Amino acid sequence: MSPGELLSKWPLVRQIRERKNGTGLDAMSKKTRAAHARTDDAEVARSICPYCGVGCGQLIYHKHNRLVSIEGDPESPISQGNLCPKGAASYQLLTHDRRELKVK
Q1: What is the rounded CA–CA span in Å between residue 26 and residue 16?
Q2: pLDDT of 32-51, one tens digit each?
């Protein structure tokens, strides 16, 4: 690939050549435009944080019986979409590769 072809792939060079302002779609590469969130096609289940007794709401995103993400539930009257550090780490509680799956 020639240096000119490599340079033409850079968004900055494209913006200068096309006299764009460098914001929004102008600043995105083809790869960036094709990217999407991992929760886009996942199902959502409402749950409660397993740690303390406060009962903060969580949104559990799952796809094909696999956990994708855990986020705070903005409709929860208790936490209003926020999670403490322990609640935010509950994804790792369920997916860590050294998690004990059998009783000792």
Answers
A1: 10
A2: 888 888 888 889 999 998 88
